[in-house]
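Aim 2 progress update. The chain analyzed this quarter is reproduced below.
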Amino acid sequence: MKNFIRYTVKILLSGLILSALALNVSCLEEQHPGTYYTFTGQTVADYLEDDAEGRFTDFITVLKKARHWGELDTYGEFTCFAPTNSAFQAYLKQRGMSSVDDLSFSDCDTITRTHLIKTTYFMSDMNEGALPSVNLLDRFLTLSFKADSTDEGVIRLVKCINRNSHIISLDDTVQNGVVQVVDSVIKVTGDYIFDILKENPGSQIFFQALNMVGLEDSLKKFKDDSYFISYDSVETGVVGQGGGSDYRVKFWGERKSAFTILVEPDSVFQAKGINNLDDLIAYAKEVYDESYPADAGLYDDQWHHRKNPLNRFISYHILPFQVASAVDFCAKQRVIENRFIISMLDPEDYFETYLPHSIMRFSRVMSGADMGMYINRRGIGSSDEPEIGRPKHRGVRLFTTAEMSGVDNEGCNGYFFYIDDILTYSANVRNDILNRRMRIDCCTLSPDFMTSGARQRMTNNAYEGTGFKQPQNFYSYNSDYLMWVRVASTTNWSYQGDGLDLQGNYDIVIKLPPIPFDGTWELRLSYRGYEGCGVVQNYVGDSPDNLVPCGIPTDLRLSASGNYNIGWESDEDKTEEEINAIDKAMRNRGYMKAPNSHTNGETPFRDLNTMARRIITTDYFYAEKDYYLRMKLVLDNPKAEMNFDYMEWCPKSIFDFNEDKH
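Predicted structure tokens:
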């Protein structure tokens, strides 16, 4: 891309900064007073070594051989999943070994990194799904629950890691973290997700199609060897400022490619009369000839062509990032409970897929008969009532953890999940189901934000973030700024508790998510007024080298109220007619109030005078084109902040006909 230069991270190593970082580290005994294992001053290493029954001697041997023992005996924050000796004996037997001494250094290093997370997580606080941070192997661990019975016949709920490792001693607090004792060694695979699917007996029709369209090489990408970030940037980090607070920002250490694949098991295909690959080829042609009529019949035998119907069918099932649990396509449970008013709108997120210029909506039904995670659904909760004036559409549901029991769905570069109906980007999905306002969280705009675990990461310290150097879908005209994804917190005033923060003289270009059909659309950005922010000029266009300025610059230093350029007034003590008149006047100025379907924990965003939505442009956009947004700070201020929270694509069919306030 012309004029774009490489981003260089500046490392700050002064004692003042290191002191500031230390002040931000949370204190375990203050967070969980008197609730867990008696605080004795033990480290993780002490806990393992001092066990009265000597249950961890094999694990200690592995830790020492992998050269990680020392760090568990020093200051820090760890969640340690500690397998017992009996767990190791079962593991060694499976591998045909008699002793942990038979394990290589590489084996021990992998086992160690699998069982350690550099953040403290109390499992009694966790909901089902992926843990909020990756382990030292950069892999997600998942927490699930299952019923088990004791020898006395009492049914109890057991917490499991990666479905098969039961936690038998929960939340034992030590000075540098917490120990979770598990009854089996947590297993990880070195196989690519393509090969995992190849060996999966329950989805062979899907795999045959995947293999035919030639995506094996794409799905065997893993690590970008050209990516470099300094050790200090990863381990020590830098300090960024957001909302007047200092954030400890540590950069993503390795850029990795990963995938999530949505898979119809053979039983789902067979229930629809698709019994083999030929049947699926015919079905895909019928669907995609209608969805893309200009291409009908042109690429039917060119299986590797991106416009081939079967290629399109399979590509729409692939997401270019990893999600470890079906519940994690949307915000974390604690964020939903604190931020979302689910009677108005289901928790939702939108993602671009591997099919060029396609988008997919995930929404979570939180209760009732329909409870679960769905794709391309229309409706609110389990109600049969219409949404946005149109009939309910069930969508495609992802299998739950319990339904996936016994299915090996994890590869070294991603996961697959079963779905309960056939998933397509049909003409009906594009023109009807996705004919809606699409509110897109900014922490989903790059696959890197997802795969790294930065998005919806939760720690004991709300003032942390994951830094990024030129993430996918982002480009920069200069390097004089810092970019990070804030950890998710129920105290942050943002759409999903996290956010994308910028600080410095930023001038960035973002590839926008696609729209599903040609037409007139509004592009909107979240607005959060704060005196530490800057003045930003926005540009939009179909090429990074051909971007058109959109209106006058936006002054993010001003709150929405008392600002004539915005015209925000409270709804309090006003009639519906007066409220609508204020909304109309704001739209005429290029602004909207923030949605009333989300809250800061007490007050709906719509009623907060620091929040609004900025209408960037209203124009005719094409579904088969790429579009880009440029955000340029126009005041020279190396400390200027920007909290990029969410964006919206809204079609004319919605904004021109009494759009709701949600």
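The first strand starts at residue 78 and ends at 83. Confidence is low (pLDDT under 50) at residues 1-39. These observations will guide the mutagenesis experiments scheduled for the next reporting period.
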